[in-house]
């Protein structure tokens, strides 16, 4: 039988329930079978001195799942029991879609695809804010990587003001391969970076994907190399950068403005 802790288990054991990270399963067999079955997993936790550490870390890396090493006390507190087999995993609280599902939404609406891609956005509040703006701006979907990225959990849902329930969200193993696939679909890739061409000198419209880099490091090197154009926001103050979600919001509405101007010219 699979070991797991649900809300009611936690209440019964008198430990804190953490809904922002989904249902917890623990035990080597339970976690291994969940991975093999393709269950959506946000993170795997492995005891530092577990004899399975190397094996389970390799399983996580092979399947593109984030893993963290904890000491025995931390893992015991997380699981609510010391009989946890030295490994636990958080099942995702959301059912992710595929990139093709996002493209299908655009096709059904008769619109050129407009996609937001988050390159290693690790703060769930930033991710939630980006998803909220993406839904409001009429984006057809959001793409996030499996590795080094916040997952769509309850914190993201709350920050998105429920928008995460209305917009398609895909979680991909390889972001660069995803960008190449989108290019094959004639989608123009715009990367956001401080040294790019000013967005005021660029018209954003048509089939487009907007890539937002991580809070601390911006776009990854390979991700940047797979962008068609690098755009930036003009800065006039003492501060030379903006929060990732703020930058994303401004750029999304630059796309909305360009889309509306394009539609006016056609009339």
What features would you describe in this structure?
The protein has ten helices and eleven strands. It has helices at residues 7-13, 28-36, 53-62, 72-79, 99-109, 124-136, 154-159, 175-184, 221-225, 244-266; strands at residues 3-5, 24-26, 41-47, 66-70, 87-91, 114-118, 141-145, 168-172, 188-198, 208-212, 229-232. Helices cover 38% and strands 22% of the residues. Helix 6 runs parallel beside helix 10. Strand 6 (114-118), helix 6 (124-136) and strand 7 (141-145) form a beta-alpha-beta unit. The strands form two sheets. Strands 8-7-6-10-9-11 form a six-stranded parallel sheet, sandwiched between helices.
Count, helices: 10
Mean pLDDT: 85
Q: What does the radius of gyration come to?
A: 20 Å
Derived from helix and strand composition plus strand pairing, the structural class reads alpha/beta
Summary of the model, kept short:
This protein has 267 residues and is an alpha/beta fold. Helices cover 38% and strands 22% of the residues.
């Amino acid at each position: 039988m699979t070991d797991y802790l649900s809300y009611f288990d936690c209440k019964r054991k008198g430990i804190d329930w953490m809904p922002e990270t989904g249902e917890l399963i623990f035990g080597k067999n339970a976690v291994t079978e969940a991975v093999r079955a393709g269950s959506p997993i946000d993170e795997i936790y492995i005891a530092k001195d577990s004899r399975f550490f190397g094996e389970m870390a390799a399983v996580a890396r092979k399947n593109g799942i984030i893993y963290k090493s904890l000491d025995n006390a931390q893992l015991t507190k997380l699981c609510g029991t010391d009989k946890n087999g030295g490994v636990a995993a958080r099942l995702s609280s959301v059912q992710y879609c595929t990139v093709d599902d996002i493209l299908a939404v655009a096709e059904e609406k008769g619109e050129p695809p407009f996609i937001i891609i988050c390159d290693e956005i690790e703060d769930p509040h930033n991710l939630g804010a980006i998803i909220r703006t993406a839904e409001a701006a009429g984006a057809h979907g959001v793409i996030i990587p499996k590795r080094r990225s916040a997952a769509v959990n309850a914190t993201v849902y709350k920050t998105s003001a429920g928008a995460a329930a209305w917009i398609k969200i895909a979680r991909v193993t390889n972001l660069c391969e995803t960008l190449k696939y989108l290019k094959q679909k004639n989608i123009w890739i715009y990367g956001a970076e401080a040294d790019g061409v000013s967005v005021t000198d660029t018209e954003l419209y048509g089939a487009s994907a907007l890539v937002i880099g991580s809070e601390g490091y911006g776009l990854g090197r390979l991700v940047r190399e797979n962008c068609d154009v690098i755009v930036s926001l003009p800065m006039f103050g003492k501060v030379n950068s903006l929060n990732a979600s703020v930058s994303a919001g401004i750029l999304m509405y630059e796309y909305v403005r360009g889309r509306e101007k394009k539609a006016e010219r056609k009339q």
